Amino acid sequence: MNETARKSFSYDTHKILHVSMIAIVMIGSIVGNSIICFLLVRFKTLRTVPNILIVNLAVIDILNAVTNMPLMIMWYIYQVPYLKGRAISWFIVTWYVLFMYLTVFNLTVLTMDRFGAIVHGIHYHSWKTINKAKAAVFFVWISSAAYTYGMFTLGLDIDLGDAPVLLYRIHYLKKFGRHFIIPGYVVPFTIMVVMGVTIWRTVHNHSRRISAYSSTGKQTKNDVKTAKTIGLTVVAFFCMGVLPMLLHNISKVHGSWPHFLAFFLNHLNSMANPIIYSLKTPRFRKAFILFLKEPLGKSQPLMASKNRMDLNSTTRNLSSKVDMFHTQISSV
């Protein structure tokens, strides 16, 4: 009797801890990514091509937090009785997978943007526009939806009756899911790695040739900083996407810690992205500070570097002296 009570208490404790972890990530994801979106709406200077793609990733993370995370608490942790059956299981699993591919495809487009900016330089900068960035966002959503729901048409004939969502998910993975991992995951990450290596080689080869004080040098330096931030985002997603696959292969027991962590790490990535942006992107930090001071104002964050500000100050002083000299000449 006491042994049964101990097991029940331990099981309930694990459930509470699992729910608490998901709730923290859900709140952090919604708050952090909402701030990223608010900053883009508030500040025109942030509306660049890479930032449009970053905000799209933030929107994806917000939707993932408000839909998939509560659903995970219900179907995975508490296994509520009404979340079962063919139709509901198909919807929940496809919705979960959709956001996985939305993230992968959006990160691929972000890497391609940095590849064009650094490897092709001025040619790419003269070609890219905000409208093309919006078209890329539309392409990410359409291609992800087509890939996900095209894949899951193969699971429409799977009928396990009133089986829970987890059992349907296992059957989907066995029947067709594994065959779509290579083109859906491995191919995009291979593209990102190849482009990342090319970007690194380009920066390494040209860093000594371009002056850091020239306009081209400043643009290249900014592009490299953005590329590093996006690179960290890709690495974070890679770690939180590949490791769960390994954990799934190690642990088959539903509710065990390795099995739970496989799902949890995928959601944790949604909260990690705003942290990366805040730590690695001075523009977002300055904009956030100004947003706290003037949430409804019209001022824009000053992004000029110290050298540039010193140069502007020197220019203003020189202009002032020239004006005084002209005044003195005129008075004579």
From TrEMBL:
It holds the Pfam family 7tm_1. Gene3D superfamilies: Rhodopsin 7-helix transmembrane proteins (1.20.1070.10). Belongs to the G-protein coupled receptor 1 family. Keywords: Cell membrane, G-protein coupled receptor, Glycoprotein, Membrane, Receptor, Transducer, Transmembrane, Transmembrane helix. This is G-protein coupled receptors family 1 profile domain-containing protein. It is a multi-pass membrane protein. It comes from Pocillopora meandrina. InterPro entries: GPCR_Rhodpsn (IPR000276), GPCR_Rhodpsn_7TM (IPR017452). It is found in: Cell membrane. One of its GO terms (molecular function) is G protein-coupled receptor activity. It comes from the Eukaryota.
